[in-house]
Design a protein that fits this description.
By secondary structure, the protein is an alpha+beta fold. It is built from three helices and nine strands. The strands form three sheets. The chain has a four-stranded mixed sheet. β6 and β7 form a beta hairpin. The chain is rod-shaped and about 125 Å long.
Length: about 170
């Protein structure tokens, strides 16, 4: 037997059919490459992890500016009396929760600061009493009644002593 006749003879195709097959094969390869690129891009995308299906490409950012307002601290030079307490205590830059405290001897309350002046923090506050025989205050604003009477507790900024607030303390038996 002859080896040339052992396999089936090849069918002849035209050049046009061969070109169509080549074009089809190139389209399939191009489609596979495109799918791979899309899969890689989706896997590497930061936006696909944060929010599905949303795109930030059409987001408009509008920025507005407001006028800058500066405040100048007011220093009260008149002596503090019971009548001028409210006006004097509100001239400082600290905003207190209460400006008057009524305590019994031995009772403790805390003076709360609701708002700090610009550039100060809780670490910057310094507390003092104008009469330790009536009421004392610690470094955290805890006021303790010692003896009957009236005094003023002051909180000041350590970095800027002009920034302060006062609270009135009345201690009773």
């Amino acid at each position: 037997m002859d080896n040339n006749y052992s396999h089936r003879p090849r069918k002849r195709i035209s050049k046009e059919t061969a070109r169509k097959r080549q074009l089809a094969a190139l389209c399939v390869i191009a489609l596979i490459v495109l799918l791979i690129i899309i899969a890689i891009a989706k896997g590497c995308s930061k936006d696909s992890k944060k929010s599905k299906g949303s795109s930030n490409s059409n987001t408009n950012i509008v920025t507005t500016t407001a006028p800058i307002v500066t405040t100048v601290p007011t220093i009260v030079t008149e002596p503090i009396t019971a009548e001028s307490t409210t006006a004097a205590s509100q001239t400082g830059d600290f905003k207190m929760k209460k400006y008057t405290y009524a305590l019994a001897v031995g009772e403790t309350d805390t003076a709360w600061i609701e708002e700090y002046p610009d550039g100060t923090t809780e670490d910057d506050e310094r507390w003092s009493s104008d009469n330790d025989k009536v009421a004392t205050v610690d470094s955290y604003g805890h006021i303790t009644g010692v003896a009957p009477g009236e005094c003023y507790i002051t909180v000041r900024s350590a970095s800027d002593p002009t920034k302060e607030a006062q609270v009135r303390v009345m201690v009773t038996e």
